Amino acid sequence: MQQAIAILDSGVGGLTVAKEVMRQLPREKVIYFGDTARTPYGPRSSEEVKQFTEQIVDFLIQFDPKVIVIACNTATAAALDHISQKVDIPVIGVIHPGARAAITATKTGNIGVIGTIGTINSGAYTAALKQLSPYINVMSQACPALVPLVEQGDFRSEHTRSTVSESLNGMKDKPIDTLILGCTHYPFLMEPIGQVMGPHVKLISSADETARETSTILYDKGKLAIGDETPVHQFFCSGDPVMFQSIARSWLGEQIRNTPVVWHVSKL
Ligand code: DGL
Ligand code: CA
Q1: Pocket test for ligand 1, best of 19, 33, 39, 41 (most atoms within 8 A of CB)
Q2: Which of 17, 100, 101, 177 could be bridged to 71 by S-S, CB 3.0 to 4.6 A?
Q3: Helices (H), 62-157
Q4: Active-site residue numbers?
Q5: What does the pLDDT average to over 208-231?
Q6: 89 CA distance to ligand 2 middle (Å)
Q7: Radius of gyration, alpha carbons of the chain
Q8: pLDDT digits (tens, 9 = 90+) for 53-105
């Protein structure tokens, strides 16, 4: 049996990473878990997010994955180190890949970061950027109103556009040339965010670079999938599977064939 890449998030946000993993590594099978019953993680304490992440990893590890991708910035900030110590397969977060991609993109060294309250308060992006380059100026802003819009599947309505615009009030006049979408839900809102920030600001999602890191690690370990069979991915969520499937369909298209299976978090 082919070992899978396990990907987790507080909800549908990690699908932005899953899509890129499926694109860059089309032979690999993905097992995805979205904790839609307990989303959003952003306003929760880091201790609670760590416990939830650990619970989900215990669930996913039963499938014997070859790597775990924590496709959630909030969970990466709260739990990456802990989970890496706990399991003996590679664990990949989204913050360092996002920071690397932003440093590649910036010309001025002035980088904005938007994310959940948990991610921004953790200071994890500032630390990751400064670890790579001490010359970077970082401007951060929490945008707690955005994740609920995405979980409701509302990416383009007038309400969404005005909420995005209000959420970016503190960021849109900052002298940045690069903006890190420091929450994996935000690429769903790429278009309204781009409209507010304007064409001179590059929007960076962690997805490409996280998928590249996954690819590199599997290559280094000799664990890349072989063979020509098209993998059948598996999806789990803890909340409403109809809403999850509809959002996943709109984002992944053909890659989601089966109805997602509900795992009640109490069962995890
Ligand atoms: N998608 C997650 C992130 O990247 C978390 C969103 C949330 O649940 O608040 O931070
Ligand atoms: Ca480990």
Answers
A1: 41
A2: 17
A3: 73-86, 95-105, 117-122, 124-132, 146-151
A4: 72, 183
A5: 95
A6: 6
A7: 17
A8: 999 999 999 999 999 999 999 999 999 999 999 999 999 999 999 999 999 99
Cα 59 to chain center, whole Å? 19
What residue has token string 């960076």? 204
Angle between the 124-132 and 95-105 helix axes, to the nearest 10 degrees?
A: 50
**pTM for the whole structure:** 0.97
For the chain, what is the largest distance between any 2 Cα atoms, rounded to a whole number of angstroms? 52
Query: Which amino acids are annotated as binding site, given as ranges?
Result: 9-10, 41-42, 73-74, 184-185
Alpha-carbon distance 121 to 200, whole Å?
A: 27
- The pair phi, psi for residue 115, each rounded to 5°, is -170, -170
pLDDT surpasses 60 at 268: no
Ligand 1 neighbours (beta carbon < 6 A)? 9-11, 13, 39-42, 72-74, 115-116, 119, 147, 183-185
Contact 229, 43 (CB under 8 A): no
Q: How many helices (H) and strands (E) does the chain have?
A: 11, 10
- Quote the ipTM score: 0.94
Q: Which atom of ligand 1 is nearest to the CA of 144?
A: 9
Ligand 2 geometric centre to CA of 84 (Å): 4
Secondary structure element (H or E) that encloses residue 219, with its range: helix 207-220
SS (H, E, C) 144-190: CCHHHHHHCCCCCCHHHHHHHHHHCCCCCCCCCCEEEECCCCHHHHH
Q: Is the Cβ–Cβ distance between 49 and 19 less than 8 Å?
A: no
What is d(CA 42, CA 150) in angstroms, rounded to the nearest whole number? Answer: 14
Query: Which pair of structure tokens corresponds to residue 143?
Result: 């945008």
Q: Is 253 left (phi over 0), alpha (psi -120 to 50) or beta?
A: left
Q: Give the span between the Cα atoms of 229 and 158, in whole angstroms.
A: 43
